[in-house]
Amino acid sequence: MDKQRGYTVMKYDNHEDSRPTRKRINGFTLIELLVTVSIVAIAMAVAIPNMSSFISQLRVDNEISQLNRLIITARNTAINYEASTTVCPLNNANNCTNNWTGDISVFIDNDGDGVFEAGDNDQIIKVKEAIQQGDNLLYAQASLRYNQMGTILGAVAATPFRYCPNGHTDLNRGIIVSASGRSYATSDIDNDNQDEDRLGNAISCI
Q1: How far is CA 194 from CA 6, 43, 198, in A?
Q2: Residue 139 CB contacts under 8 Å (≥ 6 apart), including other chains
Q3: Is the per-residue pLDDT at 38 higher than 70?
């Protein structure tokens, strides 16, 4: 404290820098960002095709399971109701067609003619929805018919039901129906990562 010219002068020692300090902000450099983006792009390029194949595999397995259960339902219905039962895609006139990619119906077919006729007391038992657009489902006949004993009416198709997902021929699967009326999903019997029928032929929709 100094007393000069009749007033008091206060002096303070200030050893701190009053200027604002700069804090370092950590972040990515442009090169680091480009490297990260490149790694993510490569990972996605590898993962996306595998994911597509995985999703298609799930869809195929689900469709084969649903179709097999539908066929089993038809056989059990024929036995339990002691009535002819038909599995087929029905058109607008209620006739069986070869369009197996559409809705597939199981119905009691009292006269066994492959036509759903309400006037003959035919009865719809179950309907399976159409498969995904772009996929394919083939069968050599327009219908699969069961008699009261649960065996096949008429000849059995030489080739199985064949389900082929769009763009994934290695995932093709099928269902084999025997003359006894029993159904079996195909499998990879020679370990080549592709399903075959009982004769060893690869499942194909061509």
Answers
A1: 107, 27, 13
A2: 98, 100, 157, 159, 160, 161, 162
A3: yes
Cβ atoms 133, 104 nearer than 8 A: no
Q: What are the distances in angstroms from CA 178 to CA 107, 146, 157, 206?
A: 20, 11, 9, 22
Q: How far apart are CA 51 and CA 73, in angstroms?
A: 33
Give 169's DSSP letter.
Answer: G
The C-alpha atoms of residue 139 and residue 131 are separated, in whole angstroms, by 14
CA distance 86 to 71: 9
| Phi and psi based region of residue 122 (left: phi greater than 0; alpha: psi -120 to 50; beta: remaining) | beta
Ramachandran area for residue 78 (φ above 0: left; ψ -120 to 50: alpha; else beta):
alpha
Q: Structure pTM?
A: 0.76
Given CA atoms 87, 67, 178, 75 in this order, what sign does their dihedral have?
negative
Provide the percentage of residues in the chain whose pLDDT is more than 90: 68
